[in-house]
Write a structure and sequence with these properties.
Structural class of chain B: alpha+beta
CATH architecture of the largest domain in chain B: 3-Layer(aba) Sandwich
CATH class of the largest domain in chain A: Mainly Alpha
Radius of gyration of chain A: 23 Å
Order of helices and strands of chain A: HHHHHHHHHHHHHH
Oligomer: heterotrimer
Number of helices of chain B: 9
Number of helices of chain A: 14
CATH topology of the largest domain in chain B: Rossmann fold
Number of domains of chain B: 2
CATH class of the largest domain in chain B: Alpha Beta
Helix content of chain B: 25-40%
Number of domains of chain A: 2
Shape of chain B: globular
Chains: A mainly alpha, B alpha+beta, C mainly alpha
Helix content of chain A: over 70%
CATH superfamily of the largest domain in chain A: MetI-like
Number of strands of chain B: 19
Strand content of chain A: under 5%
Strand order of the largest sheet of chain B: 6-7-8-3-9-10
Largest interface: A-C, 98 and 109 residues
Distance between the termini of chain B: 38 Å
CATH architecture of the largest domain in chain A: Orthogonal Bundle
Structural class of chain A: mainly alpha
Order of helices and strands of chain B: EEEHEEEHHHEHEHEEHHEHEEEEEEEE
Chain lengths: ~280, ~325, ~290
């Protein structure tokens, strides 16, 4: 039960919370705002907060000069592909650990988690070696595989915690009703776990989208996603603040919107079910 | 059909033996109740019959065919779970139709059978609701509906009434009994409640620690409990069990006498005692009496209203025709 | 508890995930371990085809004794420690603030968690240019407005700048988890404490903070694992110069820039060991949670 709070106190906490919220959000807000300015206005002193000529020119220039759409498409393919394959591998695994646990289930779960903690840099060379060997460098397929593997433990864990909440009675009822394993998973488990599966997909899409070690190190012109597209802006060339802002806005906008929808699941996914 | 034979059936979980070798025959059309305290293995036994667990040894024969290694889906049995286990994402209609869909029946046939089952169970108005929108009793009926549409060889009930409140439980008990009379299909029913066992069963199987203590009709068990455990478990309120010199007078280690088989008087009788607690139910009155020479209080039933209170003198006389005698092993002495 | 049939089905369904992860772990790990005992300088003509010279623990010794090693350990510790301190302390305060009744709570929450969804390369670039640029950045404008001389953040206060950027990225994570934990606190406990005469400060230290201890531990451990391998933020801003070369970045440079694979692999093994020490603690907590 929430208690009644004096209006004065509510006004003060509201003001403080909004001030801090806006402060934290400011870099993003400023980036979005700057993307609509001209280059000269972008570096105007004092900074222009509203009174400037809104322009979409930067977006056009960025798209024209660096083919934003191709990077965007790569990001979608990489994040989507790795998440989808991950889910397909993880659903059976999570089913088996949640509903037919054995003495080793706990160890397997923890071991899967431990692979997530392998520092990427420690295996950078071997992975690139394997990529060279199998002609995977700068291919989407190779990167999808890597992104899928680094996120697989999280996918399995999230699904596992969601599946755990489904009473096994219901699956057994389906078995008694004549469903085979495939039908049990397809008609009973999956529809019941749809909210959990959806949030797992969402969170892992975001993680894969933002992944910036392997995408920077294993891609070049062909399969580079938005992370690499943005990194190419790190060397300035003349006046470029507005264009940088436009490029940044385009890179984060899709995921920012998705992310805002998934904030609840974020906690569960990133703490491996330890905090709900 | 629905003739089930358990032959030498065993179950171990790791090192723990849940069911020692056990034999049991369930005849076609019988209403069999497995009853016992929690942890006695009755649910495990039911799950073994269902095929949701493997037997560690022995055979399960259903209608003459060895079903020991047949998966649950193909044993032709239907089960009603304690939690009902309804599919929350499906409407009542789809829940009931699910086993038929799995059996690849034609749509028209499925619709016909679902409609028939819904009528029998008074669910017609609720067919398009989700389980979450139903009351406990309605959910229970959906679970039963899902079982009956398959026309199974036998129904398995796993404590189906334990999640219902007391009033509803009595009603559902009657409904299930009526259903059995109408369908004449074998039913195996697990409960820890001896009242359910007594009221519904053709045959009661009393289990303790995986062992069958006694098998028989409710009245057989009531009249001739084979041992102390069954004597104490069947009947409400419980049978009075008395040790010591009074038992010795009757030539037994322990004697048992049900509260309804003791004659009480305020003037004179075999045992003298004082009333400690009196429970007035209207139709009956139960006295808990502290008797001279008997350590445990003796419960006695008296018809109607009797005006005796705490501390009043009372004399009890057991009916010799209903006195049960047990030996040192706790077994009944004839 | 299940039948033999479902148990073998379960094993079959678990297999793909286990095999994939096992391969993902073992193959590169074995290669790294193997290479760490070899002299391997591709630029000087070494190649896998011609066979590599076995050098024993020389790479391990050289990695530690190199003049860059200890500074990199120091940089790693300062950056990880600084970010942890900032995110946990501010995270607790923010979580408590957001738990209060305020108008527009949902919107404020969205503002606060937004940085977590910004890809690392973008946040690094935005901070580097839009905010920290010594001439045109917002900070420079602000400094000049108050009559101060703008700071060249990424060269003069490089480590602090990196800490600031990374903290900004991870504060939402800490806040969100701690907020979830706070919301699970039974309000009757607080009311009981209030009835017992505990001041707000006492209630915070004796009830709220102990309740949050598990969530704080989890935040620290998970963040440590991610922070030990921050890469893009440094790659885009300082490129490892001005004292911001962390262990991860040093190994990256050994492997990619100076193409000393053997040395880099030995460093990689160190990084793996380090990560595993942290991981063991995390797994204990998560494992305990599994038993409940």
């Amino acid at each position: 039960m929430a208690r009644a709070v004096t209006p004065r106190r509510k006004i003060i906490t509201t003001a403080v919370a909004w001030a801090i919220g806006l402060l934290i959000f400011f870099p993003i807000y400023w980036t979005i705002l700057t993307s609509f300015k001209t280059e000269a206005q972008a570096i105007n002193d004092p900074p222009l907060f509203f009174s400037f000529d809104w322009t979409l020119e930067n977006y056009a220039v960025v798209q024209e000069r660096s083919d934003y759409m191709r990077f965007l498409w790569n990001s979608v393919i990489l994040a989507g592909g790795s998440t989808l394959i991950g889910i397909l591998v993880a659903i059976p695994a999570a089913w088996s650990m949640a509903f037919v646990p054995s003495r080793r289930t706990k160890d397997i779960l923890l071991w899967m988690l431990s692979t997530k903690m392998l520092p990427a840099v420690g295996v950078l060379y071997p992975i690139s070696l394997i990529f060279v060997q199998f002609n995977l460098l700068d291919t989407r397929g190779g990167l999808i595989a890597v992104l899928m593997l680094i996120n697989l433990p999280i996918i399995v864990w999230m699904l596992y915690t969601y599946f755990k909440e489904i009473p096994i009675d219901i699956l057994e009822a389906a078995r008694m009703d004549g469903a085979n394993l495939r039908e049990e998973i397809l008609y009973i488990l999956t529809p019941m776990a749809i909210p959990g599966i959806a949030s797992t997909i969402l969170l892992n899409f975001i993680l894969a989208w933002n992944e910036a070690f392997w995408t920077l190190n294993l891609t070049a012109a062909n399969s580079a996603p938005l992370t690499a597209f943005i990194a190419s802006y790190s060397s300035p060339e003349g006046l470029f603040f507005a264009k940088l802002s436009a490029a940044s806005t385009m890179a984060i906008a899709p995921i920012l919107i998705l992310g805002w929808f998934s904030q609840k699941q974020l906690v569960r996914g990133l703490t491996f079910g330890a905090v709900k | 059909m629905g003739h089930i034979i358990l032959e030498n059936v065993k179950k171990r979980f790791g090192e723990v033996t849940v069911i020692p070798p056990l034999d049991l025959e369930i005849n076609d059309g019988e209403f069999v109740v497995f009853v016992g305290p929690s942890g006695c293995g009755k649910s495990t036994l039911l799950r073994l019959i269902a095929g949701l667990e493997d037997v560690t040894g022995g055979r399960i024969i259903i209608d003459g065919k060895d079903a020991t290694s047949v998966p649950p889906a193909r044993r032709g049995l239907a089960m009603v779970f304690q939690s009902y286990a309804l599919y929350p994402h499906m409407s009542v209609r789809k829940n009931i139709a699910f086993p038929l869909r799995m059996a690849r029946l034609e749509r028209a046939e499925i619709d016909r059978r679902v409609k028939a089952a819904a009528e029998v169970l008074n669910l017609t108005d609720y067919l398009d609701r989700r389980p979450g929108q139903l009351s406990g009793g309605q959910r229970q009926r959906v679970a039963i509906g899902r079982a009956i549409v398959r026309e199974p060889a036998a129904f398995l009930f796993d404590e189906p009434l334990s999640n219902l409140d007391a009033a509803l439980r009595v009603g559902m008990r009657l409904e299930i009994s009526e259903l059995h009379k109408r369908l004449e299909t074998t039913m195996i029913y697990v409960t820890h409640d001896q009242v359910e066992a007594m009221t519904m069963a053709d045959k009661i199987v009393v289990l303790r620690a995986g062992n069958i203590e006694q098998v028989g009709s409710p009245l057989e068990l009531y009249r001739n409990p084979r041992n102390l455990f069954v004597a104490g478990f069947i009947g409400s309120p419980k049978m009075n069990l008395i040790n010591g010199s009074i038992a010795a007078q009757h030539g037994a280690e322990t004697i048992g006498i049900r509260p309804e088989h003791i004659f009480a008087s305020s003037e004179g009788g075999e045992w003298h005692g004082k009333v400690s607690v009196s429970e007035h139910l209207g139709s009956d009155t139960f006295f808990h009496v502290t008797c001279d020479g008997i350590p445990e209080p003796v419960t006695v039933r008296v018809g109607g209203e009797v005006d005796l209170h705490y501390g009043d003198d009372i004399w009890l006389t057991p009916d010799p025709n209903h006195l049960h005698r047990f030996d040192t092993q706790g077994l009944r002495v004839a | 508890m299940a039948t033999q049939h479902s148990r073998s089905a379960a094993r079959l369904m678990l297999a793909p995930a286990v095999v994939l992860l096992l391969g993902w772990m073992l193959v590169p790990l074995t290669l790294t371990l193997y290479l760490s005992f070899k002299k391997y300088l591709p630029l000087r003509g070494d190649s896998l085809q011609n066979g590599l010279e076995w050098v024993g623990f020389e790479n391990y010794a050289r990695f530690i004794s190199s003049s860059a090693f200890w500074p990199s350990v120091q940089a790693t510790l300062i950056i990880v420690g600084g970010v942890l301190l900032i995110t946990v302390v501010l995270g607790v305060l923010l979580a408590i603030l957001l738990d209060q009744p305020i108008w527009g709570q949902g919107i404020v929450r969205l503002f606060v968690i937004a940085p977590f969804f910004v890809m690392p390369t973008v946040s690094a670039l935005v901070w580097k240019n839009m905010l920290m640029d010594p001439i045109n950045g917002i900070f420079a404008h602000l400094w000049r407005f108050f009559g101060a001389t703008p700071v060249s953040w990424l060269s003069d206060a490089s480590v602090q700048s990196i800490i600031l950027i990374v903290s900004w990225q991870w504060l939402p994570f800490a806040t969100l988890i701690l907020l979830t934990a706070i919301q699970s606190l039974d309000s009757e406990q607080l009311e009981a404490a209030e009835m017992d005469g505990a001041s707000p400060l006492a209630r915070f230290f004796y009830i709220v903070l102990p309740h949050l201890s598990r969530a704080i531990t989890i935040v620290i451990l998970i963040q440590t694992i991610f922070l030990l391998s921050i890469f893009a933020e440094i790659f885009v801003t300082t490129g490892g110069s001005f004292g911001t070369r962390t262990l991860t970045y040093l190994i990256f440079q050994r492997v990619v820039d100076s193409q000393n694979i053997g040395l880099g692999s030995a460093g990689g093994v160190y990084a793996i060991i380090l990560a595993n020490i942290v991981a063991i603690f995390l797994m204990r907590i998560v494992g305990k949670n599994l038993d409940r």
